[in-house]
Amino acid sequence: MLTGKNTIVEHLQPQLTLLRKNRAMSVLPEAFGRFDGDPLKQKTPYFIRIVSTALAKRRLLIAQPFAMVLGILAYRSARFEPSPYALGAVMLAIVMTLFIVRRSGSLLPAIALVLGFWAGFSLLYVNGALFGTNMLYGVVYGKFSARVDAIHSNDGQKARLIISNIVPLEKGARAPPLRRARIMVPADNLADIGDIISASMRLYKVPGPVVPGGYDSQFHSYFDGIGAFGSATGPVSLLKRSGEIDFFRFVADIRTAIGKRIDLTLKPPAAAIARALIIGDQGQIDQKVRANLAAAGLAHVLAISGLHLSLVAGGVFAAMRMLLCASYVVGQRLNVKKTAAIFGIAAALIYLALSGAGVSAIRATLMLLLVFGAVLAGRRALTMRNVAFAAIFVILVDPSSVFRPGFQLSFAAVIALIGVYEGYRGDLAPIAKGWFKHFLHTFGTIALTSLIAGAATALFAAYHFQQTAPLGVLGNIVAIPIVAFVVLPSALISVLLMPFGFEPLFLKIMGWGIERIIDLAAYVSSLSAGMVSAPLLNPYALLIGFAALAWFAFFEGRERFVSLPVALVLLILFATSPSPDILVADSTKAIAVRQSDGLALISGRANSFAVRAWSKAYIEPIAARTEEKSCDIVGCYITRDRFSLALVKTRDGFEEDCQLADLVITRIKAPQSCSGATQVIDKSDLEQKGVHWGFWTGDKFMLRAAITDIFRPWRPKYPDR
Prior knowledge:
The protein has 721 residues and is α+β, with helices and mostly antiparallel strands. The protein has helices at 5-22, 46-56, 60-77, 84-100, 108-131, 217-223, 247-265, 270-279, 287-295, 306-325, 328-333, 336-355, 359-377, 384-397, 405-421, 434-465, 472-497, 504-528, 540-554, 563-574, 609-617, 654-660, 672-677, 683-689; strands at 139-154, 158-168, 180-186, 196-204, 226-232, 237-240, 582-584, 591-595, 598-603, 630-632, 635-639, 644-648, 663-666, 679-681, 692-696, 701-705.
């Protein structure tokens, strides 16, 4: 028998020597769990050691959605569409390599990540082949019949319909080569999903981004199968009422009925927010109220997400658990917790259907399904692996959603919250006791959660919405209890009572809570006015934020927080963008030029959509048209302290202006000689590349176009291309 510490070490010495010779720590462990490393932690690079530790804890799955997103980003950045044969050949090669090295502890994780990357690279191509459409490049007029696929939005006056099977009713007319289109029609006597309608319509191309790096309607419309926008130019007639049983129509009818009941009981702006919280319709929310909520850090209250679904499904779970426990017989014969979890799953799915199934709602529902599934299986519920499963599902179903703000904000918040709380074991109220301890713990948790989620989403909110919420913690500490204990419980009870007609009382209670939140948002917004201005960020900001989130999610312990200061430094060095000196709209005549006191129009209307979007995106007002320009019949010549530019209206103006101006802007085709003499933005540039941004560097303009991938399938195919 071996006794004593020295005797045991001497007995194990041969095995330990063998382990050192194998240098097991110098190679990565197998993909999903076996860790054959050296227990003595030999001298290996620190990065390799922490990666090995993370892989040993089966965290490779967490890295997979990030690899897929990276592949999607690579596909999006390509100038031309990849060959399907090349995509298939590379995928086959990766799968064969994965099979060959399946027993290699060092190569398997790397090959698995490459497979995830290439799957992401191929996803958008496959999605486009299945659901994409031709994109209209001109304007089409005519009388058409069409099937109503969905009601996109309805503000009570105008409704946006998604239509398909667009057939011309005029003899000799050709059908536009579109899978679907989105048209605006009067909201009265609105058709239902599945109905066949007819109307005189004007169809036009889907607009591109209004600023470089902004939301790209053409990209997202293509993957939704929408190839044109439009409007009804005459009365809309119902040709055929749908007689088929359609689940989506059934859900839409229920949502419409709930919306009407809300409007009968509540008044704006409370009614609009109640519609947003119950049926996911934000179309009627006043813009001032929306801005106040965003400034107070409460914009997330409007979007049905984890907060709403957790409270509703979790409330149903808790209520059913207490109800079942009230009966001794039921408690003995059923597993009360698992039975209540089934009711929680049902509540989450019903709420998802009523909400319109936005990206944040889908993500939250998937997380809840995994949580309740873990309850049914008797396993741990909230883990980063569950976040990875939810992300992979969303990416597979709708890969283009990774470019939407909802996807980025939703997953950034949940990754940060789970990452912090899975390593936190402290007490938020260590000194207090009794009810006061519970009180401090509740509000301390709300404050900490708000701080974490606000910090995680700040970068994405600043990039997409140019918004910051410096007092967001204050707004959430007061508002979240009202949402949790007044607004959402009243909403749930009112919906349950609607079939019986007894909902007005609880809708009024809900409305009272909403009014208090609106008042709070206005107050917090006034306190935070002028505190912090969102920086102007370029697309590199999103890449840096993506990399920081990937590092934070994959690693555990103190190592995960290394990404935060590194990301901050990189953002300061590479992700900020200067304010523009010139902005040129594509579809309107709006042109804004920087003067000594800010941007001002030299062409176009101050209240146009493009100008309002520019003012919001670059966080500065754009003054009305200035008369400081010299114009004649062929064009205008504008001089500023640092540069000059010419607006050419006819071909006669090119000869002189191309020699004098630092930049020539024209909505006709410019001659090649002009492009050789100075910088030019002409008709072709504006049609195909959209809005142009310019910054004067001292000797020339640094120009950026809103559209740089003109050869991709989501761009209109112009005849000269």
